[in-house]
Amino acid sequence: MTKKGTLNLHFDLSINRNALGSYTVSATDSSGRSIDPERLSSFLFFNNEQAMYGLLATTDEKGVHLNTNDFIQVFSGKTHPFATFGGSASEDEDHLTALREAANVLSETDFWHHVEMDAGKIRFDEDKLNLSVFTSMILHDAIREKIEASGMRMEQLPALLPHLREFGWPGESVSNMPMRVAFRLTEPDAETDTEWLLETVVVSERGTHWTPAVRKMNADIADALPAKWKDYADEISEKQSEMVSFLRSIEVEPGNRFLSMPMSDPEVRIFIQEDLPVFQSFGFPVILPAWLKSVTESKMRVRTSASVQSYRAAAGLDEVLSFDWNFSLAGKEIDKDSFQKLVDENREYIRSGDEWFHIDPLWLKRIRELMEQADSGEWTVKDLLFQEIPEEIIPIDDDEESDDPLLAFSMKQSLRDYVDMISNKHGLPDAGVPANLKAELRPYQIEGYNWLVFMREYNFGACLADDMGLGKTIQLISYLLNIHARPETVAPSLIICPTSVLGNWQKEIERFAPTLVVHTHYGPSRAKDEEFEKLVAERKPDVILSTYGTVTQDDETLGGTVFASITLDEAQNIKNMQTKQSRAIRKLHGDHQIALTGTPIENRLSELWAIFDFIHKGYFGSFRTFTDQFIIPIERDDSELEKRKLRAKIRPFLLRRTKNDPDLQLNLPKKLEQNEYCPLTTEQAALYESFIEDTKFKLDTLTGFERKGLILKMLSRLKQLCNHPGLFLKEPHAPAAQMLERSVKLNRIVSMAADIAANGEQCLIFTQYIGMGQLIRQCLSELHDIDVPFLSGSMPKGQRDHLVEAFQAGEFPIFILSLKAGGTGLNLTGANHVLHADRWWNPAVENQATDRAYRIGQTKFVHVHKFVTVGTIEEKIDKMLTEKAALSADLIQSSQWLTELSDTELDDLLSFER
């Protein structure tokens, strides 16, 4: 036992190393149970702030993915106080021994003295370092990663070694100086001088540049510095020496004076070409003349305009794009041959008159490759529309040019109009509403149906993400009637949905498309394996209905069929890509994949990847690629550029309309949402403060996965306490009058619901907790003689369907529903009041629940009441949700995990304001 009663944990690691030196690590505990990769990462990255202690680590079902330096850092410095690591097998133990040895060797101050380059390979002084072959290999990988991460090349290592031996790896030492040491290059005074000046300057915290007075130019650094900086003289001298060691353009005699060296034009060229990239790679500041700095950023421009030869309605998607290229340097047009010469000569710095221009040779090479691909006719209108050509050639937004000033892309107006038509889903080829459809489609529903058929014709998956209640079901049924009327369609279509709406699908298809043959694959007596194949062959169903749970269990049975189409209803069910359910569904085979959801993103962008990996596999590449390109820039850095790129990439695959869209002409009644604020009782406040203090103490002892779990558990307990102290204390129910006295919120909910019923209206009451639902039900029954049904996840499907029909028929005025069981798939337009007894930290879940009443068919004003306890996490979460609304608008719907809050934000969330 460790202090405070925490058990020591031991993990046996299985280590797989690929050819490039990266690792995949999985683990089992002392009982032989597999460890969740996210939990394992929190222990491996215990002391790694850069990886946010494991939160930014890449994990999947195989394990935790690390590069060599990440793995070495696990065994560097402070070790985890509660965890130890061993190898699952002897080779794993050997690997761990080598990693620990590598960590110790790298920490030695004289390590680089024992490193040499020999015939392009790194060699170590084996006698001095006493390394095993395994450890040498690991150190080689670690050095290679460091070189590549800094933007350098391996062949540059011999030139770096003298510096590394004297100063160590740049950037690894931490400085506490209140200033920075920089080099400054000053151009010559044309009238009096022909030489440039390279000098050391000290940059203050305010950004001002300091150099020694002329009379102190030859003085020691300590004597030349002003009094306020003299204590830092040694550090300044050390930093200057470190930077001087990188200079190749000029020779500098060692000394303890501030650098002030004249430079000729040839030396300046070498400095810019060779020294400057090294300084930039390692983060050493270099101050250039303003005009030189600006031209080093962007003087070469390429413009291209795309067009096609003809347009033939939908067939135009296969038209090859033709490109017209134009080039300019410093505002002067240059021809294509001159551009090609720049590329062939691998030019980087070009002088035009009295000016120098910097051009990235790698960028030039990339543009040449793109030109060759484009001019060879590799790209079509279809590639352009679905973002399957390099992003340099894709306009990020129809109304904006790319932020990259080096490449501007435009489309001829005729091509732009054509792409706009398809991208915006207006004016698509008319698929013809099926004659067997027993319903009249609204105009926007016809557009959605045409779009689904169009996407099928061109083998693109589709995500129909209309708001709840806008008729995703009828649009899909129309699509199914279309494809199953075709003689070439032999295989059935598969619809996967939550169990709670399985009956809805049966009834809707029977009502609107009675000609479709439907088979329900669900329940203990369902056909499996050969029996399933025989059933499909004999009955020839058009549609097979099943549930997420059933498909997960029967993935092998269903995996043997190539379905005409596979549709996921409430597709957010596969948002967690690592679950067995999500993996099983993404392995199914279909000619066309469709996702139906009102919330394509509920919490994180990883959910968007999971849905798109189902509807159009491989579109976003691997999850690791998607993380690097979009998740990190958007969720961590809030990058507007990457948001625009992501919107551009998902837009062709995503059709989303909202109830607030005036173009839909829905004529829905208005909806008013308001918070109902309730104070805590004295009893609740005392329990609240006590529980918070106890939890804060526990949080300080945990990190990673355990801390995250405790936060979630704590939030749930606090919300139960906000509802009623009896729920928090797990007490049996007392008489209703006594229970009301202990919670203002319960009292308000019961009295409001009773008033609504007395006025002849109907209401829905949503709660996350079974105990709260039972308590509300008891109080309404005892005090107001109202018998209120409670729909929870344990209620049988037949009883659920009966209660929904009875409520819609007005047979009872109040309906209590658990948030998860009743939040999706139900039509409850009989209600014109919605009461949220407790707040969920994901607004998409609350909105789904509200949309049980606020949907097509609703003719009354809908009043939504959200109960919030003052001064508690409920009020603070409500404010946070308001602040996150901007991101929700930017990328469909999104919110941030509360478990990822910073310590400061978490402290604010846990503070109690009476």
From TrEMBL:
Keywords of the record, alphabetical order, are:
ATP-binding, Helicase, Hydrolase, Nucleotide-binding
Top-level taxonomic group:
Bacteria
Q: What is its EC number?
A: 3.6.4.-
The chain positions of domain Helicase ATP-binding read 453-618
Q: What class of enzyme is it?
A: hydrolase
Organism from which the protein derives: Sporosarcina thermotolerans
List, in alphabetical order, the Gene Ontology terms for molecular function in this entry.
ATP binding; helicase activity; hydrolase activity
Q: Can you name this protein?
A: DEAD/DEAH box helicase
**Residues of the Helicase C-terminal domain:** 745-910
